[in-house]
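Hi R.,

Here's the chain you asked about this morning:
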Amino acid sequence: MDELQALVDITRNDLAAEQRRQSLAELELQRQRELLSLRTITSPLDGFVLSQSVQVGEYVRQDSTVMTIVQTDPLYVEAYVPSELYGQIKVGDKGNVALEQPSGTVEVGTVTVVDPVFDAASSTLGIRLELSNAEGALPAGQRCQVTFELLD
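And the predicted structure, written out as tokens:
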């Protein structure tokens, strides 16, 4: 009986030792994940990499540019309209945006910015419209034409 009890005690001790090893391994895994997170750069937005400034293994300072990421949802349309339209186009107004690609596409955008400063040389003012592009079907960076239905 003493021999059996000794085997049971040894087995319990072995089990306890293995449980401690497992706990230590879990703590080490957590530590390594934390260390990895310190070396991982995460973009604050969803988008596409336009350019990469550094390569894998290069030292990155806190103020270094690592890459340029473009966000394609929403799309922003920058347009210039004659200064005579100042006061007629307001934030929240809708405008029709005719895109070059896909050919014949016309989307409705919402005015989000009306520049309060005119460009004296061209007698225009800047506006920005926002287009939803959740599906990513509209390519960014293309020419377009904006029209408004203004009430007199």
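The two ends are 105 Å apart (CA to CA).

Let me know if you need anything else.
M.
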